[in-house]
Amino acid sequence: MTFDALTRDQLQALHDDQQAKYDALKAAGLTLDLTRGKPSPEQLDLSSDLLTLPGPDFKDSKGIDTRNYGGIEGLTELRAIFAEILHLPVEQVVAGDNASLAMMHDSLVFALLRGTPDSPRPWVEEDEVTFICPVPGYDRHFALTEQYGIRMAPVEMRPDGPDMTAVRELAADPSVKGMWLVPTYSNPTGAVVSEAVAAELAAMETAAPDFRIFWDNAYAVHHLTEQRTKTPDIAGLSAASGHPNRPILFASTSKITFAGSGVCFLGSSEENVAWYLRLLGKRTIGPDKLNHLRHARHLRDLDGVLDLMDRHRAILAPKFAAVLEILEDRLGGHGVATWSEPKGGYFVSLDVVDGTASRVVELCKEAGIALTPAGSSFPHGQDPRDRNIRIAPSFPSIDDLRAAMDGLATCVLLAAAEKQLAS
Ligand code: PMP
Questions:
Q1: In 302-397, where does DSSP find H-type helix?
Q2: Which UniProt keywords apply (predicted)?
């Protein structure tokens, strides 16, 4: 029965039942963590070959000694694999070091300090710079724009991409210089940008001539089902619409090989790539090519990547299934929560009763279950409805995950009952 349909006495009984469960949970003295989307040790073990690669042969296919300086754009054979994933020619893909977030940071800072190839002036010389932020979204994106004083304009992230009416309206303002977007299996809802939405993003009018889409394809090949969802070819669509410089694409092997020692990629138009490499060339003499070489040998080609991702799926899919099963078992039919059922990526997004997400996170914390702070998926950490909670099932063991989810469900019910009784 939904909470709304309960009498006050029934609600009080439900509250007391959940309170008893919660007291037992606290007494159990758990330490469980559902905070960050980290691969589990078993997933990292899938790439343990990397610990012995590249072996004594440290030259790449062109005979370049990967131990030495140089090659700012990265190793061709590795770029070629990700060029396929990003739908770009290999010349338009750069391989960097271990974090695509660093490439996003640098692209943003280069635009701020130097302007993009299409900018009338560096972005810092503008009175105001605004980024469109689909919400809920990735907290570290928002933390980056916040750090540099960029105003953030939230728009709703729908199952097929951002609310395009809102995006178009915002893009008519010349202070709006760009937007964040995770096109495939978005963090945290698992939304996938459709071909139609991508085509609109590529073609839409923008008042700023140097509008950039930070197309963060962090989960491009991170499928949880047999269906290998294809990301729209935003670079092709943008070029065909006369806006070749609009998208900057990012990806990485953080959740393919080693999260801390992977390789990241930036792809874009020839002009944008030349701009990025020119500015990057002052920051570094070149990336860790030895890491590129060992990745190229470990991954081999696109099929090698897809095979490896199937093995990740075998570990991850049961964890996501456990999360969804417990949510349905404990919360289904009560009318107190809705949640995403992602086909890929690293997260489940849970919406609880408005105004109770912070309380749920606090109750969990007191019971030894760590969750990302409520509001994390919104600019400035502020969820206007205080209802969204991001669940990251990848790292804990399945037993720990089940215990944590059961505890979380108790906290959701308890917080909802408290709120209803107080109203
Ligand atoms: N983008 C998104 C959407 C992410 O969820 C994450 C990791 N949680 C990253 C980027 C970080 O990627 P990297 O390790 O390549 O910096």
A1: 302-331, 357-366
A2: Aminotransferase, Transferase
Residues 26 and 98 in one domain: no
Nearest CA to ligand 1 atom 8: 37
| CATH of residue 387 | 3.90.1150.10
Distance 394 CA to ligand 1 centre (A): 14
Ligand 1 pocket by C-beta < 6 Å: which residues? 37, 99-101, 138, 182, 187, 216, 218, 252, 254, 264
Q: Which domain holds residue 289?
A: 58-300
CATH at 243 = 3.40.640.10
Tell me the pLDDT tens digit for each residue of 16-74: 999 999 999 999 988 999 998 999 999 999 999 999 999 999 999 999 999 999 999 99
The interface predicted TM-score of the complex, written ipTM, equals 0.99
Q: What average pLDDT does this structure show over 392-409?
A: 96
Distance 101 CA to ligand 1 centre (A): 6
Residue nearest to ligand 1 atom 1, measured at CA = 218
Spacing, Cα 415 to ligand 1 middle (Å): 31
**Ligand 1 center from residue 66 Cα (angstroms):** 26
Residue 132 to residues 77, 179, 213, 378, Cα–Cα distance (Å): 35, 4, 9, 12
Sign of CA dihedral 297, 298, 302, 307: positive
| Ligand 1 atom nearest to 36, measured from its CA | 8
**Is the confidence at residue 4, as pLDDT, over 90?**
no
In total, how many domains does the chain have?
A: 2
Is there a single domain that holds both residue 203 and residue 87? yes
Q: What is the pLDDT of residue 357?
A: 98
b/e sequence 177-215, b meaning 16+ C-beta within 10 Å? bbbbbbbbbbbbbbbbbeeebbbbbbebebebebbbbbb
* pLDDT tens string 100-143: 999 999 999 999 999 999 999 999 999 999 999 999 999 999 99
Reported as a single tens digit per residue, the pLDDT across 193-225 is 999 999 999 999 999 999 999 999 999 999 999
Measured distance CA(176)–CA(269) in Å, rounded: 21
Q: What pLDDT score does 1 carry?
A: 77
143 found inside a domain:
yes
Instruction: Please choose, from the candidates 352, 362, 374, 353, the residue with its C-alpha nearest in 3D space to the C-alpha of residue 423.
Output: 353
Single residue among 274, 300, 326 that ends a domain in this structure:
300
On whether residue 193 sits in a domain, the answer given is: yes
